[in-house]
Each structure stands twice: as structure tokens, then as C-alpha cells.
Task: structure prediction
Amino acid sequence: MDRRGFLKLSGGAAALVAGNVALFSWVPRAGAANVTINLSIASSNLTMIDGRVLHVLSYQNATLGIQPTIVCQEGDTLTITLNNTLGTNSAFAIANTDIRTDAAANATTTFSFTVPSAGTYIFHDDLNNGVNRVLGLHGTLVAMPAGVKNQPFAGGPTFVRQYKWLLGNYDPVWCDAVQANGDNYVASLANQADSFEPKYFTINGASFDQTHNANTELMGAVGNAALVRMLNAGMAVHSMHFHGNHVEVCSINHVNHADYRKKKDVIPMFPLDTRDVLLPFISPPDIPLGEFARGLDLATSPQHYPMHCHTELSQTAGGGFYPHGMHTGIVIGKEPLTEPDLTQDVAQL
Amino acid sequence: MMNAAMVPMEPPTPYWLTPDVRFEREVVMDITHEYMIAGEPHSVYLWGFIDPTDTGEKTFPSPPMRVKQGQIVHTFLKASHIHTIHHHGIEPTTHNDGVGHYSFDVQGEYTYQWYASQSGTYFYHCHVNTVLHAEMGMYGALIIDPPTGPGTVEGDGIGNFLPYDVEAIWVVDELDSSWREHSEHAALCGGDAGLNRLYPDVFVINGISNEATVLKVGGIDVTQFADTAPGVAVNAKMGDRVLIRYIHAGYFPQKVSIPEELGPVKVIAEDGRPLAVAETLDVVNDQSTLVITPAERKEFYLIPTTAGSFRVTMEIQHWITRRVVGTVSTLINVQ
Ligand SMILES: [Cu+2]
Ligand SMILES: [Cu+2]
Result:
């Protein structure tokens, strides 16, 4: 299957199932370019891990699915045509920047901006105290450094593959209320933000164990480091715990750490945070060497671990069902059969 | 979809080695602490691990484990119900990581085998229906000392060993007494057990709150307060080098405030890894402050130069609204 076909497939499937994993495809080039994309702002259904179907609002693109990931190069000019089909005003804002435009109800808006410095960005609808965002109106913008495909920023650490984890929370009461009362009900929810009580917790739109897929589960042979771009589009404070390897902190909200990178096994994720970490894929350091001497070989016995949020309330679905929440896998010792979209796409650089 | 309540099939420990140190832990599910809730004493049930090779006392938190960097460790777990031990921050094989969904739950016995590769502050906890079992109290501190043992700590430089005169381990948690009504398997197979809702009403350091906390020591009821409880309150002399190992064992963000009079507070290590350069806490409203999120560990290092009793406060913030839902505090007494 050619690359284009793959993108279409994953995009289409993503829109209906786990969501949110496809990428904006772009061609190799030396310098900054003009990039255009159409996004509609619309409601859709998202099926939760226990089968419950939620009414969500989202940015959508026929190829990219909902909650899309857009990959650009820093300095590119990105032109976005926003077709807001909702009966309520929306917006497109890039968190922690002043890049923003309104998108009036039932109208089309075209908006251009210069892609900021290399890093990971949440785009979202910032209206109504975050209500629109947490109902699903968010996505990922990855700004790659110019002409570089294996570093998060110029001078940063090198990686073999890269992933993004877009974190979300859903309160079915809110989703049902908007479905029942119409899109404009978001303004009423903005006055009752304290009532938000999430019951579903997702990474890239999916809860464990639907997170065992090439775009979310981290997999690689020993030595093949992975960059993980984490974005918290939800309203809860999360605390991402990695088993198997400590991660190196590369960027916190666009403050980059080129030379010295702190090693952590828990990464705090406050709402609207973006934090990029490097999972080094070293041989897990607390395996006694004697186990290798006695025959343990990670290449033939890859080791499987969880990555989960340690705000354990997020490990539930529908009020129970542990551990079907914000949780995915880490496999150390084996290469993935399918590369994550983000790695495949950037490999075209 | 995998069912969380898997049939446990604990195998023998693969690649068995002779350990340098061995711990035994046995699960108990009938620990009681009495806490003041809304002005009334309430018995709060807790679960945990006892050390049958020691006094076997039923404590909350569970007894600490302490080893030296470079040791091969065996942790023997005995459980009559389904539980595990995950050594948080330790990175052994899948079999020895104690996460049922990736290996097996333990209903019987298992010996976890791991290597203490890096000195630092860790903790251990059950990883079965963790949202409930950790909330029920199934955790304890895990300290890896440098190869030379206690008395120095690696930090403020990789390979730099700082001596300390006074050490405290603070395990800080919030409890929701209403969760005691859940069964140990609550909602493992679906159904709404409300495990996404936590309304904590007890706030503790090492299991002790600021109001009268009644626990058993040697089978006898003892009343303790976080301001004075041994192991919680810190007693130091001016010029002492004080190391506080902070372990976040709860689910809500914790904002720590340390009075400025105690001097600059440095974080020298985090999550069991020394920092190459210590980070001095920001001072806000005369307090060195830091927000810590679930399961993070911080090693605070300070050298008080002023005598007095100084109150260190942990505000427990709601995980969504960030409002303060409760506090727990203790004293650093400097002579
Ligand atoms: Cu347990
Ligand atoms: Cu843990």
C-alpha cells in the first residue's frame, strides 16, 4: 500500500473508531512553505471503551479524521479554512501563543499564521471556559525543526521514532446535555464548570486496551529512542507514569532542554500543558545482570510495561472498569510492525 | 477486552538469583486508624502489607524497605486475595514489575527479583485495581541508599554525594472514608462504582492527620498528631543538613509550602534520579512552594539557620477545579 493510501485508511478509520491519529501529509522541502488545510467544526460520535457513544464536538477533516494532527515545519505559513457547522460560535487558538481566530456559528473563516518554533502545540476552541475544548474541540500541531526529521528541535536529542499522546477527558452528562439542548448549550455549561465530572480518560481518543496500536503504544528495540509529545486537552491534572524506563524531559511548554535533561518516571500534565519526553529504550536498568547471564534476551523476550496516569481516578471507564482509562503499553526489545504515523510522515522530510 | 479480574497464576521467579537482601510482605485487609471527620472520630479501614519477619505490626503506611545501591533484592509477597507489589520507579522485567495485566496477579506467593541500580527515593504499592487498592493504603516507602548506606544522598550533581544529619520520609495522601464501602473487586468488570469520584475527608502524612489519629502500636491504642508524631515532625539543630524525602501517594495535586525562615529549599533529586543541578524552590508569600503531582518523589535539602518551630503545609487541590479540599501540615523544629 502506498503512503497516500495508508493515510486515507488510517484517517477514515480513526474518525469512526479510536480517532485522532492521522496526520496532515506534506512533501519534502528545503525551507518554509505555504500549507493549506480545511477543517470543519462539527459534532460527531465517539465510542467509549465500554460501548457508550458520546456526542462530541470536534475539528474534522475528511482525510485526517477528528481531533487531527497537523505536521508542519517551523516558519511555514499555515492557512486554515474553518467551516463551522455548529449552531454556536467556535474558535481556533494555539495554546500558550497569541495565535487565534474566531469562527462564527454557521460560517466559514480563513485564517493564516506563521508556524511557531519547533515543538508540540495544542490547538483548541478556547471559548466558554474550556467547555468547548473538553467537549472535543482540540487537536495537535507538530512543528518540526527546519529540515530535521529525528530531533524535536535543533540541537535536541535524536530519536528513532516519534509519537504524540493527546490526552482527553469526557463527562457523558455534558455530552448528553449538548446533544439534548443543542450546540448553544455550551454557554450554559460554562457557568457550571464545577459540575464537570469526567468518566472517560483517553490517549489519542482511546482508552486502554484500544491504545495497543502503532500510534500510541511505544515499541522498539533496545537503543531505539522514542520521542513522546504529550498534550493535555482535558480539564484534569494528570501524572503520567512510565514503567520500564525513566524518560528524559526534552520540553515543557516550549522551554527546551538541549543539553541536560532531567530523568523522571512521572510527568505532571496540567491542563493545556505540552511536554515532550524521550523514552531512551535502554535495557531496563533494574533487571539484575545475572538474569542476562542466565539466558534472558530482550530481543527474543521483549518486555511489556504499562504507561498510565497515576491520578488513578483516570484509570477507570464509566466509574469502574479498571484499568481501561488513560493507559497504554511500552514494549522494549522489539521493533513495531507498523511505524507510528508521525514517524512515517516526518520520514518524508 | 481483557478482564481485570484475571485468574492469578503466579509462576516461579524466572532466572532465580541469590539475593543480597530479602523482604517479606504479607497482605492484611483489616488495619484500622481512627480519624476525626467533621469533628467526630471515625474508624477508617485500611489495607496494607505487614512484615512477618519483624513485629508483624499492621501499620499504615506499610513498613518501609531500605536497600543499598548495587544490591539484588527479593521481595517475597504472600497474599490470600489478589494483590501484587509494584516497586514504583524500579525497572525490572515484566514478571517482576507487579502489574497483573502484563504478567500475573498474586493469590498465593511470589518472589519479586530486582536490582537496585540507582540510589534515591521510591515507593512500593499494590498494582491490582490500583485506583482502589492504593487508596485503601497498600503502599510504603522504598529507599535505595548509596553503596555506603544511609547518611549521604546523591544529588545536586550526578555522582555527587551530600551528607545529611537529619532525615525525614513524608508520604502524603488524601483519603475518602466513603470508599471503604467498596469491595476489593469494585467495578472490575464494568458497572459504575464511582471510582472516578474522590471526595477526600482525611489528609495525612505517614498515615497521621493534624487531628487526633488513633492507631495501634504493639497492640495498644496510641493517639498521634501530625505536628508531633515521630517520623513526621522534624527536629533539627541550627546548621543541620536536613533531607526530606517526599512521596506523593495520593491522587490530587499537593502544594507544599515551607516557611522562608528555614532558608532556601533545594530539590536535589526527583523520582529516584539525582538532578545534575539542584533546583531552589520559588518563594511565594514568604513560603518556598512547589506543586507535586501523584507518585512524584522529591528530595528536599535544607540547612536551617534560624531557631524556631516552622509549619510546613501541604494543600491538597482538587484534580479538576484546583480548589483546596484539605490540608495537612507538620513542624520543623529548629533548636
Ligand atoms: Cu491489592
Ligand atoms: Cu506507582
